[in-house]
Specification:
The complex is a heterodimer of chains A (324) and B (323).
Chain A (H helix, E strand, L loop, with lengths): L4 E16 L5 E16 L3 E5 L6 H8 L7 E6 L2 E2 L5 H10 E4 L13 H11 L5 H14 L16 H13 L5 E5 L7 H17 L3 E6 L2 H7 L2 E6 L2 E7 H6 L4 H9 L49 E4 L2 E3 L7
Helix pairs in contact in A: 3-4, 3-5, 4-5, 5-6
Chain B lengths: L2 E12 L2 E13 L4 E5 L6 H9 L6 E10 L2 E2 L5 H7 L4 E4 L13 H12 L4 H14 L5 H4 L9 H13 L5 E5 L7 H18 L2 E6 L2 H7 L2 E6 L2 E7 H6 L4 H8 L39 H5 L5 E3 L2 E3 L12
Parallel strand pairs in B: 3-8, 3-9, 6-7, 7-8
Antiparallel strand pairs in B: 1-2, 1-4, 4-5, 9-10, 10-12, 11-12
The chains are: A alpha/beta (324), B alpha/beta (323).
Chain lengths: 324, 323
């Protein structure tokens, strides 16, 4: 992992204007992502975890160029996304693909599976039309489906199979980077394991790099190499997964880990119970975003958001308990 | 036994044939107990709870069995008699706190509705009751919050309102259908704690329907695992997690990534849930099972007692289910 990072996120911000006054001036701004920076190296799976509204999906959407950032930069393979011209941007979009959360909503019900998977190939004129069929069969086999499924429609498949179709579509353009936005959270446990294993296999086979977005900490732990924890638009902690799960530093990470229901009844752990709800991102608390619910809060936490700083080698944390 | 479900069979007749969503399901619920029914989508856990409440939509129909509540069969009751029981002695909370509250009424109006139907309290007393039940579920400053509309509350708050509504008439049984599925983990932990506390305080029985084995481990006393409309294993929670016996339960437990161990690959149960119209002739898990024998493909095993557990598998005996 000493290599140059494939994707660099620098001071990324995304603000949404929720309300304007009579003169069109913004009166309420939702800070979905607020000053987030991290790197993803080639061949790595980076997990992004947090509760709803923390901005993890917004980051994913900015990377695939669905949203444009309010400020900050996304640097892929040494080039800044904002500086690309039209042709370069097309090339960029080919390299970065997205797998969606809901396999029921992300496949067009009026298209056959073959059409769904070949659509990106046809749009980008990647292959002559007589080779498309072979390519589709190959992609279907890659994700563990029979190639004669090509002529069926999406509604004929179960949730797990649909997610496989979505994965095949994402692979169609030979991407180098895939953003997986909660790819297994809509699936049943037994199917979840199948899809997680498939994603793992494909990563090795096609030497892919993943940004894996999820709210389930145990799935993230299984698939990622490094994990970033987000809360209300801020990155709270980034570390190697082993380090993060054994030695979480930020109180929010600690609380998140202890809130996961444990199926191993022999391990009794101390629970950290958080009071109250996640505050609204339109009016986030002053100072550290987590200070209203933090169980280790002390004087001064509500003054300024602590920056993300390196506490140990490769372990970054944004908390006043550490970086002084 | 407060509630006893005996040989419940619920069917849906569709154009393509009859789907048996719940097949020969029997279990009991004791006073003050939390029983979890766990299973994947399509396993019949929600249909079981709707059958108990008498809330099945057409074309669903209970075709066989008894649901005995305090010595009387609920299935023999008329609609108006059931309405007196529902919300009063048995109440239910649903998965989606966003969609199960009415967006155009204030929270207090919605809470007053069930109180007015089931009690003869004066207006003032009824309002006091609303405040009291909102306080019980941990909503801060309930006097103010009861004037809110649902959209002014967060998901966790709304689920608390749903619980307050279900508890307003002190039911003896609370049926909670996936109460935490739509919520974040830290909020889920709060709601599970709340259910646990309320059970201690009010002594009511809870039937917890969930797909999440983690929630079961966290909250329940006893658990029934369902697969394709049948209970395949029933045990005390600690027994189920220490010695799971049915191959499906074992597979399910192994396929969850664990926080305290590292594994290269996750265990997978091969294949997928069979089409409800094309069920295997024998055990419904037979074509996905690693221990499948000849017998499994021909006959359906009965729920057999193995020590403290009940298991539906030929690995533990020869009992055959009678049709």
């Amino acid at each position: 992992m000493s290599s140059k990072p494939l994707l660099q996120i620098r001071n990324l911000q995304k603000y949404f204007v929720v309300e304007r006054n009579f003169f069109g001036k913004p009166t309420a701004i939702l800070k979905a992502v607020d000053d987030v920076s991290f790197d993803i190296h080639k061949g790595e799976a980076f997990g992004l975890v947090g509760e709803s509204g923390c901005g993890k999906s917004t980051i994913g959407k900015m990377i695939v160029d669905i949203y444009s950032p309010t400020s900050g930069s996304i640097i892929f393979d040494g080039k800044d996304l904002a500086s690309l011209n039209k042709a370069e941007r097309r090339k960029y979009c080919k390299d970065i693909q997205l797998i969606f959360q809901d396999p029921y909503a992300s496949l067009n019900p009026r298209m056959t599976v073959g059409e769904i998977i070949s659509e990106p190939i046809r749009i980008n004129k990647l292959l002559p039309s007589n080779e498309i069929e072979n390519r589709v069969s190959y992609l279907l086999n890659c994700v563990g489906l029979a190639s004669n499924y090509r002529n069926r429609y999406a509604h004929e498949f179960s949730g797990g199979q649909r997610q496989r179709i979505g994965i095949a579509r994402a692979l169609a353009l030979n991407p180098t980077f895939i953003v997986c936005d909660e790819p297994v959270s809509a699936l049943d446990v037994s199917v979840q394991a199948q899809v997680v294993n498939l994603l793992d296999d494909l990563k090795k086979e096609f030497s892919l790099t993943y940004l894996f977005i999820a709210h389930g900490l145990n799935v993230i732990k299984h698939i990622s190499d490094r994990v970033g924890v987000m809360y209300l638009g801020k990155m709270m902690e980034i570390a190697n997964k082993k380090e993060l799960y054994q030695n979480p530093l930020n109180p929010y990470t600690q609380a998140l880990m202890s809130a996961i229901p444990n199926i191993d009844l022999s391990v009794k752990k101390e629970r950290i119970r958080l009071e109250g709800d996640v505050p609204s991102p339109i009016n986030p608390p002053k100072g550290c975003r987590f200070c209203t619910r933090c169980f280790k809060v002390f004087e001064g936490c509500d003054v300024e958001q602590p920056p993300l700083a390196e506490e140990k080698a490769g372990h970054y944390v944004a908390c006043r308990l550490f970086n002084k | 036994m407060l509630l006893e479900v005996k040989n419940l069979k619920t069917e849906f007749s569709t154009k393509r044939g009859v789907v048996t969503a719940v097949n020969n399901v029997s279990f009991g619920l004791d006073k003050g107990e939390i029983l979890a029914i766990v299973g994947e989508s399509g396993s019949g856990k929600s249909v079981t709870s709707l059958s108990i409440m008498g809330l099945l939509q057409k074309p669903g129909k209970v075709s066989n069995g008894e649901i005995v509540f305090k010595g009387e069969d609920l299935l023999k009751r008329s609609v108006s008699e059931l309405q007196k029981i529902r919300g009063d002695q048995i109440s239910m909370i649903f998965q989606e706190p966003m969609t199960s509250l009415n967006p155009v009424y204030r929270v207090k109006t919605q809470l007053l509705e069930s109180i007015n139907i089931h009690t003869n309290l004066s207006k003032e007393d009824a309002l006091k009751k609303v405040v009291e039940s909102l306080r019980l579920v941990g909503i801060p400053s309930p006097e103010k919050r009861m004037d809110n509309y649902p959209h002014q509350m967060s998901g966790g708050m709304r689920q608390r309102v749903m619980i307050a509504m279900a508890l307003s008439c002190h039911p003896e049984i609370l049926i909670a259908d996936e109460p935490t599925t739509a919520l974040d983990v830290t909020i889920q932990a709060q709601i599970l704690d709340l259910l646990y506390d309320l059970r201690q305080k009010l002594g009511m029985a809870v039937l917890l329907i969930t797909h999440d084995l983690g929630v079961v481990a966290e909250a329940a006393d006893r658990v029934a695992v369902m697969y394709c409309g049948r209970i395949v294993e029933e045990a005390m929670v600690k027994d189920l997690f220490s010695t799971p016996r049915h191959p499906y339960t074992i597979g399910l437990l192994q396929s969850i990534p664990k926080l305290n161990e590292d594994r290269e690959r996750l265990y997978m149960i091969k294949g997928m849930v069979p089409d409800p119209l094309k069920m295997p002739k024998g055990c419904s898990f037979s074509d996905r099972c690693e221990h499948c024998m000849e017998k499994c493909k021909e006959k359906i095993p009965s729920l057999m007692q193995v020590e403290n557990q009940r298991v539906r598998c030929f690995l533990y005996g020869d009992g055959v289910e009678e049709e």
